[in-house]
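Researcher: Let's do a round of design. I'm pasting the structure tokens now; please hold your answer until I've finished.
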């Protein structure tokens, strides 16, 4: 699968690549960012593990790459970082651009089953299969055997869901570790999630909702002990509105391992919060990606 390079930007001794490819799952051209740490340039034999960052509502692959400041610690540790888009673009579906929390910029990392969204809103398949394959096929310096995942808000939902769903249902070694900022942790019972799941799956079979709800999935989780880092700001207005519900996930995960939910005093829902704790999250993943710890 051909990948087009649109720009190369020097960053922390490495390279931030602005890329695009035609995706079959989403039926459109998808833009994404890939950060290659300096070790891949200095040593042609160096294979960098991959950390996937899933962004939140309204974002593209540029937001985390340009405002998350994850490249600093990633460069230090020799980790590549992949920044996908959050939805298909310009599919000409009626209503796809009508609201910030559904459609464009709000794919919720699910494979839609309800028409017309089932046409190309297949972000689960895109993130777990098609995009990583494109990266590993085109960038041999990235190690497809060592992959971790994290995200913010809707992307935090995606990271938690992909880890628990993939490990429980499919492949217990696809992701070595997971972390999240302010995740939508129980989408089946919050306004954002109810709107998205109703639109992408319909209301007739709520079991489909549970398949993409981290709180519901973790109840059935039977993989290796969890070690999850979650940061939520005490000044996060979306937490106060009942959109995030991280406590529900923590309670559901009891007995499954460690969920380190850190309340960050005075921090909000913005990229300022992510940048402030970026090094913590990258180092959390580095322990698994570089030191061989089992998840």
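Researcher: That's everything. Go ahead.
Model: Designed sequence:
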């Amino acid at each position: 699968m051909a990948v087009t390079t649109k720009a190369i930007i020097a960053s922390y001794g490495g390279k931030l690549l602005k890329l695009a490819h035609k995706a079959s799952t989403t039926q459109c051209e998808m833009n994404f960012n890939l950060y290659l740490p300096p070790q891949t340039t200095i040593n042609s034999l160096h294979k960098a593990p991959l950390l996937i960052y899933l962004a939140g509502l309204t974002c593209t692959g540029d937001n985390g790459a340009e405002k998350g400041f994850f490249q600093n610690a990633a460069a230090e540790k020799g980790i590549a970082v992949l920044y996908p888009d959050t939805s298909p673009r310009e599919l000409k579906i009626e209503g796809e651009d009508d609201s910030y929390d559904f459609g464009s910029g709000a794919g919720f990392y699910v494979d839609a089953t309800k028409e017309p969204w089932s046409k190309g809103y297949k972000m689960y398949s895109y993130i777990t299969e098609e995009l990583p394959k494109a990266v590993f096929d085109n960038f041999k310096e990235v190690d497809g055997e060592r992959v971790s995942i994290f995200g913010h808000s809707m992307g935090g939902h995606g990271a938690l869901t992909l880890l628990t769903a993939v490990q429980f249902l499919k492949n217990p070694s696809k992701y070595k570790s997971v972390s999240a900022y302010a995740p939508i942790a129980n989408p089946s019972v919050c306004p954002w999630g109810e709107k998205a799941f109703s639109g992408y799956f319909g209301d007739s079979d709520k079991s489909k909702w549970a398949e993409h709800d981290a709180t519901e999935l973790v109840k059935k989780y039977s993989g290796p002990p969890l070690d999850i880092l979650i940061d939520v700001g005490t000044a996060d207005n979306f937490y106060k509105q009942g959109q995030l519900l991280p406590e529900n996930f923590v309670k559901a995960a009891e007995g499954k391992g460690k969920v380190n939910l850190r309340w960050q005093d005075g921090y909000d829902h913005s990229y300022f919060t992510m940048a402030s704790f970026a090094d913590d999250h990258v180092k959390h993943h580095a322990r698994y990606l570089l030191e061989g710890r089992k998840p």
